[in-house]
Amino acid sequence: MSGHWIAPSILSADFARLGEEVDAVTAAGADLIHFDVMDNHYVPNLTIGPPVCEALHKRGVKVPIDVHLMVRPVDRIVPDFARAGAGFISFHPEASDHVDRTIGLIREHGCRPGLVLNPATPLEWLDYTLEKLDLVLIMSVNPGFGGQQFIPSALEKIAAVRRRIDALGRAVRLEVDGGVKVQNIGACARAGADTFVAGSAIFGSANYAETIRAMRAEITGA
Length: 222
Prior knowledge:
alpha/beta; TIM Barrel; eight-stranded parallel sheet; 8 strands; globular
C-alpha cells in the first residue's frame, strides 16, 4: 500500500461514456477509480449505485474501485458494493449508528474499510477506530457536489491525521477529496496525504495523462 496514488473521481466523468472514461483515466495512470455514491438524503444529490459499480468491475477495471458512501444508513448497502467489486469502501461516521460495526461489516465482506471526515467533523472519531481502518478520507469540501473550491483548513487536518497514522505504525492510506488540482496537490502531499481524489481537474482537462503527470510532478516536488 505504499507510494502516492491518484484517484480520478468519476463524478466528473461523462456518464454517457463511463466505461470508456474509466478505461481512459486508467490508461492515463490512475491508481484507483473513486466512485461517489450519493443518496439525496445524507447529501443533497443523487448519483450512482451498485449496478454501475458492478458494470465497471465486469468490464475489467484494472485498478481498485474506491467507493465513497455518502448515504444513510450505511450498513444495508455495504454487501451490495462488496459483491459489485469494490476494493475500498469508505463511509461517514455521522451516517452510521454503530461506526465500529460498520467497519467490521466492510472487512467481513472482503473490502478495505475507510472513514470519511467532513470539514467540520472532529478527529476524535479516530480515537477508537484508526487501528481498524485501512483508509482515512479527509474532505476538503462539503460533500454532495463536484467542482467545489478547496477549503484550506483541510491541510491542517491532513497533517494532524498523518501524525496519528505515523504514531500508530500501521499502513493506513490518507486520502484527500474536494477541489484537488495541480495547483494545490503539492500542498496536500506536504501535509501528509498519499492518496488524491481529483474529479473535474482530471476529467475537465484536455489530456488526462498530461494532467496526471503534472500532478505526480507536484507530489514528487513536495
